[in-house]
Amino acid sequence: MTQTDISPEVVQQTIEFHGHSCPGLAFGIRAAELVMARFDRASDEEIVAVVETDMCAVDAIQFLTGCTFGKGNLIHLDYGKNAFTFYRRSDEKGIRIISKPNIFPRQDDELVALQKKKVKEGLIPEEQKRLKEVMAVRTKRIMGASLDELFEVKPASGPIPRKARILESVICQACGEVTMESRTRRLLGQTLCIPCFEAVEKRH
Questions:
Q1: CA angle, residues 21, 127, 149, in degrees to nearest 5
Q2: Domains in the chain and their CATH numbers?
Q3: Along the chain (204 residues), what's the average pLDDT of each consecutive run of 10 residues?
Q4: pTM (predicted TM-score)
Q5: Which of 84, 60, 65 is nearest to 143 (CA)?
Q6: E-strand stretches of the chain
Q7: DSSP character for 110?
């Protein structure tokens, strides 16, 4: 049973976009539900998302809210937090959505243990089956919880990120690849892309 207002068909489309159903994706679906209830969906760039994780939830946010890397209205900050800030450009309103700590009971330690073992040494078939079962239970719990149970909502802090800019491209003088001008570096009289800059810098 789900409490989400997002239709089962759209939830399934989100799962297909991501590739599988999991607790992380469920968190993203619910966060997207919360923001769309307040700001609606971005048809272009009028809504901006700043995500502080690169986990599965971000795929749901892209698919459901219309905030995407390609349009420049999805910004990733590598903080490792299950936190998402959304801004609406028309009135400069913003909210920060944070998952509440200690949402899940201690019995979810089994999930953590199985995930750690999967990364370190792999799982036998019985353990893989059990991991899927435990993840399905957690996913169902997330989808069935109220938004108040899952998230704390605060006002966004800081200015709205500037709009994506289309800048001139230049040729890296080391690898010859086209590079956005703002992402180049100058070193030893040459204009270099970041990977070439770092490679040359290491040699000197």
A1: 45
A2: 8-155 (3.30.1330.130), 169-203 (3.30.60)
A3: 80 96 95 94 90 95 94 93 94 94 70 84 86 90 93 91 82 94 91 94 78
A4: 0.81
A5: 60
A6: 47-51, 74-76, 83-88, 93-99, 151-155, 169-171, 178-180, 184-187, 190-193
A7: H
